[in-house]
Write a structure and sequence with these properties.
alpha/beta; Rossmann fold; Heat Shock Protein 90; rod-shaped
Length: 402
């Protein structure tokens, strides 16, 4: 049964516009008492909409099927007393107040109701106290709902931050080498775009394309530095180990295949004496060197790069003869303007840093110097360029470069 509360002597149109809607589930077997409660609420700023139940099943269905602001229950009703209605109320797990009404003035009964879960205990003979009880419990219930919502929001945001942190950790857990492949493809395809369609593009489009390649190359250099640091940091605890020169060259060439190095390019290595050092740094050295050699190639001409190593017997170098390895890298078809050679590997740090295509050669110089060695470049009389790398056969951190 659903009844709309209407105060005697007032029509619906005369109701105060400020009356607060109040949805009340009443557990009561006396229609007179229901009307009395409704009248008290209506005269004190509420616009009650209510339903009356007097059995456990009806109460359970009402609590599960509709939304209520509070329950007002006759705690001493025969056939469905307060302890039973409270049990149904708590089993429903609704988060609203339960206010007990009674016509019995017994402290023990009031204490029993409060202990059982009632929010308040109001005598039917003193319904004037019903209004502060209702308003107070409604306010507290609203505060609890807001607190729960705030806690749920906090928990949700905490889970979102935790998920974001896991995603960040996943990204940070990537090795720089994991990011090299997609970057290599960007460089490769932008180069192909420039090679095959450059003559059809406007100057602005070519400028954008060059900027994209320059940005990708900057990122590639950063990743290379990170990779070198990662490898060096990992290997430092184990000390220097045998360096496989041919293996380092092969790994560097594989990382550039399909990009700077095309299918027609060839990189050959000869035998080299064993040295002690950092294999990862040697791979980085040849990767930078091969990549920049490819940047200066003659258009349409495949590269033929030969790399060989031999013991350096120069007695004027640091240490006794035989303590240095001389690595010769030759490419007979390479074209590097003579005026550029002097600034590829400047002897001092500072103003002569190479720019543009030659910028990567400075990475070679940095790596070689960190290994305690030196690198030189010269044009050959018969054509092409030869790069000579001097590195100690064993780490010599306190020695000068040759």
């Amino acid at each position: 049964m659903r009844m709309e509360a209407k105060e005697p002597g007032k029509t619906q149109g005369m109701r105060d516009a400020m009356d607060k809607p109040l949805r009340v589930l009443m557990v009561e077997d006396s229609q007179d008492d229901v009307a009395l409660v409704v009248r008290v609420l209506s005269r004190n700023g509420y616009d009650p909409a209510f339903r009356v139940v007097d059995r456990a099943g009806d109460m359970a269905r009402a609590l599960s099927g509709e939304l209520w602001d509070l329950v007002i229950a006759d705690f001493t009703m025969p056939g469905f007393p307060g302890h039973q209605s409270l049990a149904v109320f708590k089993e429903s797990e609704v988060q609203i107040p339960y206010i007990a009404l009674s016509d019995r003035v017994e402290v023990e009964l009031a204490v029993e109701a409060i202990k059982a879960g009632a929010a308040d205990y109001v005598l039917k003979s003193n319904l004037a106290r019903l209004i502060p009880a209702v308003s107070g419990e409604i306010a507290r219930a609203q505060a609890r709902r807001e607190s729960r919502r705030a806690a749920e929001t906090l928990a949700r945001r905490s889970k979102e931050r935790e998920r974001e942190q896991k995603e960040i950790q996943t990204v940070l857990g990537l090795s720089p080498r994991d990011l090299q492949e997609p970057l290599r493809k960007i460089l490769s395809f932008t180069q192909r775009l420039a090679d095959h369609y450059g003559d059809r593009l406007e100057a602005t489009a070519l400028d954008y394309l060059e900027r994209a390649r320059a940005s990708a190359m900057t990122m590639k250099n950063l990743l290379s530095h990170l990779s070198e640091r990662e490898t060096s940091s990992h290997d430092q605890g184990n000390g220097p180990g045998p360096v496989d020169l041919a293996g380092a060259v092969s790994e560097a060439a594989r990382s550039l295949a399909g990009g700077p190095l095309g299918p027609e390019d060839r990189v050959e290595t000869g035998e080299a004496p064993e040295i002690l050092g950092d294999q990862g740094r040697m791979v980085s050295l040849f990767r930078h060197l091969l990549e920049n050699i490819a940047a200066f190639r003659k258009p349409g001409k495949p590269l033929r790069i030969k790399i060989r190593g031999q013991v350096h017997e120069n007695p004027s170098g640091p240490g006794p003869p035989g303590t240095w390895l001389r690595i010769l890298v030759e490419e007979t078809g390479l074209e590097i303007p003579t005026e550029c050679l002097s600034c590829l590997f400047p002897s001092t740090d500072g103003l002569d840093e190479p720019r543009g295509q030659g910028q990567g050669f400075s990475e070679c110089r940095i790596i070689v110097r960190e290994m305690g060695g030196n690198i030189l470049a010269e044009n050959r009389d018969g054509g092409g360029v030869a790069f000579t790398i001097f590195i100690p056969r064993e780490p010599l951190p306190d020695e000068d470069t040759p």
